[in-house]
Amino acid sequence: MSTIDRCEIIDLPRIQDPRGNLTFVESGKHIPFDLQRVYYLYDVPGGAERGGHAHKELQQLIIAISGSFDVILDDGCATKRFHLNRSYYGLYVCPMVWRELDNFSSGSVCMVLASIFYDESDYYRDYDEFLAAVRSKA
Questions:
Q1: Where in the numbering of this chain does the Sugar 3,4-ketoisomerase QdtA cupin domain appear (predicted)?
Q2: What pLDDT, in 10s, does the model give residues 54-80?
């Protein structure tokens, strides 16, 4: 199985109610990692892209809390594009996968659940450096 095949949409629990729906995420139960950090992207200008990096160890769950956007994943061998537009779907992204986010709708909010605290040394910010690391592990 290639690295990118481990990245998948996770259907999160939904409690539907006429007063408004509720979705929740429990660490280690709905996501395959212990939650250490949460951050979110918002007010992304039209045509802007986010991401453009990979992580050595970090695992993530990316959720479109509001609106929609695309996530393009690349493991150095294959790429996949996911369109996120439901707050009860999360995209699991495993380590050693390059990610880019684009096609943000107006008013969209992207929430990311992360397995480790922020650590700049965990990032690959240069695509060629990322590819070299992938090849060295093959």
A1: 6-134
A2: 999 999 999 999 999 999 999 999 999
In a domain, 97, yes or no: yes
Question: What does the alpha-carbon distance between residue 17 and residue 26 come to, in Å, rounded to a whole number?
Answer: 20
Distance (Å) of CA 48 to CA 7, 43, 51, 89, 108:
24, 10, 10, 23, 12
Judge contact between 96 and 3, C-beta under 8 A: yes
**pTM passes above 0.85:** yes
Supply 31's token pair: 């996501």
Which residues are catalytically annotated?
53
34 with 107: CB under 8 angstroms? no
Taking alpha carbons only, the member of 116, 70, 87, 83 closest to residue 24 is: 87
Using the structure block, give the residue that is written with the tokens 């995420």. 25
CA distance 97 to 42: 23
Residue 105, domain CATH: 2.60.120.10
Q: Domain count for the chain, please give it.
A: 1
In a domain, 129, yes or no: yes
- Quote the domain boundaries for residue 49: 37-137
